[in-house]
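As the work plan foresaw, our protein records have gained a structure token line. A representative record is set out beneath this paragraph:
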Amino acid sequence: MARTGVLGGSFNPIHYGHLLLADEVLEALALDRVLFVPAGVPPHKSPALLAPAEDRYAMVKLATAAHPRFEVSDVELRRAGPSYTVDTLEALRIPRPDLYLLVGSETFLDLLSWREPRRIAELAQLVVVPRVGSAFDPDSAAARKVVHGIGQEPLIVRATSLPISASELRRRVREGRSLAFRLPDAVIAHIETARLYRA
């Protein structure tokens, strides 16, 4: 079975920060592939701010096409209702020794608010990627509370994090400003053609 890293998110839009993080974790953990999973209906985000799921999926496909070990799954787009990570990991049917769930440090500290966090940790090895410059401390009371709640120690992988945010990119589109060097040209072209993120 291929060693698989799962990177979920709204990817609204996907950008070079996501891609560089995925490539560095793939290398650090000697993974066979990183599977990008765009959320159909993210439970923690307002649908009003989201581009249509089909467009977000299309942008991830465009962004990852040139990387031989990046793949994209539409498992959450095909499932009705909110996109819960525990359901996605169940659906992938990959044994835990070969399945790694990639999350940022802020997401990790919020994990106990997710659906069935302990089951998530039973299905996949958690990989926490602290944002560069963040004060994430795996020994802090907040982090230990999560570890106690899920019953598993996460892997900590330090990877380059670029100072790019999807909300800033959406604002730049609304203001008619450049997206160059922040996300792949094919994704920029899709945003323009589909007229995404306009005011």
User: Anything to note?
Assistant: The longest strand covers residues 4-9. The radius of gyration is 16 Å. The chain has one domain: 4-163. The chain has a mean pLDDT of 94.
